[in-house]
Structures are given as C-alpha cells and as structure tokens.
Amino acid sequence: MEASLPIRKIIHVDMDAFYASVEQLDNPELKGKPLAVGGGETRGVVSAASYEARKYGVKSALSGYLAKQRCPDLIFVKPRFDRYREVSRAIRQIFFDYTDLVEPLALDEAYLDVTENKVGNPSATLIAREIRARIFDELGLTASAGISINKFVAKVASDINKPNGQKTVGPEEVLPFLEKLEIRKFYGVGKVTAEKMYQLGIFTGLDLKGKSREFLVTNFGKSGIHYYDVVRGIHYSPVKTDRNPKSIGAERTFSENLSSEIFMLERLERIAKELDSRLSKRKLAGKTVTLKIKYSDFNLQTRSKTLQQFVSSQQDILREARSLLYQEKLHNSVRLLGISLSNLNTEEDMEKDDESVSVQLRFEF
C-alpha cells in the first residue's frame, strides 16, 4: 500500500489567529498588542489569542484568570461571531474563484482540491500563494497554507511556516517529511495520545512507521489503522463540499456560579432554545443528548442519554437535559452548562477514491 497515493492536489488554508486578527483589523489601536477574544479577567475562557499574547502562553481554552496571570497586559475583547462569519464568507468566495471543491473545517480554515481548477494553473503551490495574497490585499488578513497530495499531509504542512507562510510537500517528499516529523505534530495526535506513544518508544514518524499494524491496533484500537496508513502517506478521504456535523450544541458560561438547580433549569431552557434554532436551520435532529457541566473548580462532567427516536425541538431537548441534570447530585457550584445532540440524521460518505499513483510520480505541485 505504501506505493499508492491518491491523485490529488490539496491545499489546506488556515487563517492566522483569525478572531484576534479580525479584532485588530477593525480596531487598529489593538494591533501589535496582546489580545484575547472571549473570557475575561475573572470569568470565561479564551476563544482565541493574538500572536503577541501567545508568546506568553495564552491560548484557546485557557481560563481568563490564568491568561491574565501569564500576561498582565492582556486585553480582553468580546467575540463578535456575526463579524467573523461575514469575513469567513468573503474568504470562501475567494476560494470559489479557484475551485468548487471547498471543505470548510471551521470559520477560519478549509481544504481545497485544486487538482482541476478554474484558473487552469497546474501548480497548487502558486494557487495557494495567490489565494493568500488576495486574502491579504482584499481583506487585510494573513493566512497560512499547506499543499500536498492528501488532506492529512496538507493539514500538517499548513502549520510548518505559520504565521503568514506556506509549505508544499510534493509526492516524492511525503514519506521523508512524515518520517522526520515529531509525533506530536501529527494531526489528530493529542497530548494524551502523544504521551502514550512516547511510552511505547514512538517519538517521530519513522518510529511510528516501524510499528506493525497489529501493534498499533492493540495499543490504539481503530485509530491504530489510521496511524499505520497516514505515516505511509495513505489518506483516502476526499474534499467534501457538504460536511456532515457529528454533533451540534450550545453552551453558556455564567457571570456568577450557579448553585441552585432552579436557576440552572432556567439557563438550560435558553440553551435548548438556541440549540433548537441551530438544528432547525440545518434541518437536523439527533438521538443522543449530552449535558455538559463545568464546575466552579473547572472540573468538567458530561452526562449522555441515547433515545429511540430523533429529537430536535426545544421541549424535547429540555426534557432530556432536565433528566440528565437530576441524574446525580452536583459536585459543586456550576460556571458553565451546555447541551449537544449527536447521532444526527445524516449519512457519512465512507466510499474511498480508488484512483492512485506511485509516490515517485512527478507532476507539477
């Protein structure tokens, strides 16, 4: 299988510190200053941080309190998701000038398949450079890009020369690139998995490649098959223009910790209403209801229930969330509540593209 790779030219475009960069763009006084979107000095968590703030260890999901401790000069701004969506739409319009095969991952990143493209340019590298230049010229924002033969390698490559850079990994470079790569930089290998791999003597792609499929499945389950394939440059997933979400949710962080279940039920009613609206817009329903509870000591708990039928209405969602809230005694006062639905009424396309090409085949990248 090692000699077989899909015939694709994939670009992964990733905006640089997107939310923070939009805030700095709209408010020039914030440019060059450490900035955190979301959170607050005493409440909430950081949604995004500018590169100036990242130098101090401020990053997404960090509590506002810890962020301020790490960077005393940190400036907090409230997120403006309508504005981020507006800019994201403008970025995607640029993408569509080059290809209709665009798969958004979030507001700030997307895969593009430019194997065949609207501008007739055989070089994915030059297309990526042109797209990044247009984003800067037309919107005043910088983006980074990874270019390669499949989505996995392109995603990993986009992180190599961040911010405001790009990295091309051509067909003949894929295997050497992956072999030298630190295992923690493999997309999908989180902190816990990386620690487990270290314990098994896996520190680089070359170490991973030296492990048998059986060894990896024994230690990592189904993910072991994925690790076995990707380190050999094998990743069949095509760019999907219609991504099916695995779950949809809504959550709220409170200005004051809640200790009364009555107050929690009031908040859950609003959250269920918001989730109802999101589901309605996408014509989705789900069978598994999950209640997310974050306590005042930042411990996180989830409680889930899978139903026989699909639900989507505020009334049904709230009924199940209420049941989950009363499922067991709360451990502490609560700072955040969230509800999500999974097992959605969507179908994932699991077909693999059988077209393949030798890794040594050279064509313009």
UniProtKB/TrEMBL annotation:
Gene3D superfamilies: 3.30.70.270, 3.40.1170.60, 5' to 3' exonuclease, C-terminal subdomain (1.10.150.20), DNA polymerase, Y-family, little finger domain (3.30.1490.100). InterPro entries: DNA/RNA_pol_sf, DNA_pol_Y-fam_lit_finger_sf, DNA_pol_Y-fam_little_finger, DNA_polymerase-Y, DNApol_IV, PolY_HhH_motif, Rev_trsase/Diguanyl_cyclase, UmuC. It comes from the Bacteria. Its main location: cytoplasm. One of its GO terms (biological process) is SOS response. Pfam families: IMS, IMS_C, IMS_HHH. It is found in: Cytoplasm. The active site is at E109. The record marks Y19 as: Substrate discrimination. It is an enzyme of class 2 (transferase). It catalyses: DNA(n) + a 2'-deoxyribonucleoside 5'-triphosphate = DNA(n+1) + diphosphate. Residues 10-190 form the UmuC domain. Binds 2 magnesium ions per subunit. Poorly processive, error-prone DNA polymerase involved in untargeted mutagenesis. Copies undamaged DNA at stalled replication forks, which arise in vivo from mismatched or misaligned primer ends. These misaligned primers can be extended by PolIV. Exhibits no 3'-5' exonuclease (proofreading) activity. May be involved in translesional synthesis, in conjunction with the beta clamp from PolIII. Monomer. NCBIfam families: PRK02406.1, PRK14133.1. This is DNA polymerase IV. The gene is dinB.
